[in-house]
């Protein structure tokens, strides 16, 4: 069972002259009043009494009082806490009458319960750090956050490179008519020489044919001349006929071969040799474009893989938080900052901020069932009502101050005393709004 404050009795502490208060066991107890009437002095007195002399006000003694400060707080566990004198001498008595000291109070009184503004004013990351340390997953979550950040940075760099490669590839010129590989001028010249050699052989065969034709013509002329001398040169004539017949056969064969010959053109190769540099410029451009597209695709794949790794880390992170004993449904840590119902601290409503802060303080020291809050005037009545209902549901006690004298205030302090609002109402015949001096039913130093 968490420990609550049953009653508070104060005298001559800061602006308080004499105040006695029994806060609600659960929910919101609001100490109202105008400025400089002693509201915050009540909270400062409680903090001093329970938190020790490190919370002692710089001027604890009420100005003008001849009686020393006196604080008496009764706790729900039966402890009675008293501080007296300017030095704040502490007396702690348990239900059996045994004496104790500050160490016992420190064992169950949460520092943030006494100093909630310290938590409220902390940075978003410090709030998250407090929560993570409370639920015991701080180191593991830090490792996952660090890993996620490293992967994110790596993916970001890869993505930039991929975009650059893709843009570079898109800017490259591509020639559809260019060959896939670079052209060698030496190879083209070699092909040209081979064609020229074959054409030279064809020329030799043509020349040989012409020579044979000339020989046949000459032989025929000689045959005609010798025909007159045939009688005398019969033998010679027969030999010439045989030789002529042989040459005719050779001529026929040569004619058939020459008719089948076809010279090859070197014009295309000559053009390629002349344009080899221009062709290779296109080939290199095409190769650069293909290479750039391949690199862009590779970096794009790496970006996709890193995105998967980041998602896996985030799932591990969510699983870690889901399995943790969080003090409030909807409370989490995102990107190293506290979130509630998906909102970061600065996007939360005032009621949600108080609920989150109070829940974390309770989780920090479960035995401490109360929290002190100052300056609730920033909240409207609806927000106060929502916050009060939540406190009652959670069995928590909050003692707070508010610059107000309205009905939402549990008590109203005026000039260091609790104001009797019925007696403070102006009697008949006096101007509306006239406030009467408060009357008290007890004397200073008496409770």
From TrEMBL:
Is Aminoacyl-tRNA synthetase given among the entry's keywords?
A: no
Pfam families per the UniProt record, alphabetical: AAA_23
Q: Which SUPFAM superfamilies match?
A: P-loop containing nucleoside triphosphate hydrolases
As given in the record, the signal peptide range reads none
Coiled-coil stretches are 195-309
Which residue stretches belong to region Disordered?
A: 425-447
All copies of the Rad50/SbcC-type AAA domain together span 7-264
Keywords of this protein's UniProt record, alphabetized? Coiled coil
According to UniProt, the name of this protein is AAA family ATPase
Which species does this protein come from? Answer: Peptococcus simiae
